[in-house]
Amino acid sequence: MVQADFDDLNSLVAAFQGANVIFGVTDFWTIFNDAESQKKKKPDQDITQYCFEVELQQAKNLADSAAQIPTLDRYVFSSMANATKWSHGKFQRLYHMDSKALAVDYALSLPGLQGKFSQIQAAIYYNLPWEWGLPTTPKKVGASLIDVVTQS
Length: 152
What we know:
Strand order of the largest sheet: 1-2-3
Number of strands: 5
CATH architecture: 3-Layer(aba) Sandwich
Helix content: 40-55%
Oligomer: single chain
């Protein structure tokens, strides 16, 4: 196991040396929940817009570093759909989705990832509903466990 920093391209390249498969995942909500983000954003900038910019840059750093690895066979990035694009502009502030979608566009543009790039769009990672208490978290009712599904 090696350590790297999403904000440090050189540390990512060093960590990926010799890898043949890289799975990249960024986390908008860690940036959002970091108290330092409030200090780092521009004074008039919305925190979610700041997180979008940071997450997108981190994803670009992952792609740029993966593209430099000569042993790489496959780079898989955990992404989401582009909410702004697919809603035809109706939803323009789903930054946690759009940052990942734009990262896919960026990765696809890199010559070093041509024929080596895949994305996965997992609706949610299994541990998150439990930790965050999201509406999709199964709830215990009586003696049984039921899955609560929200409808729009």
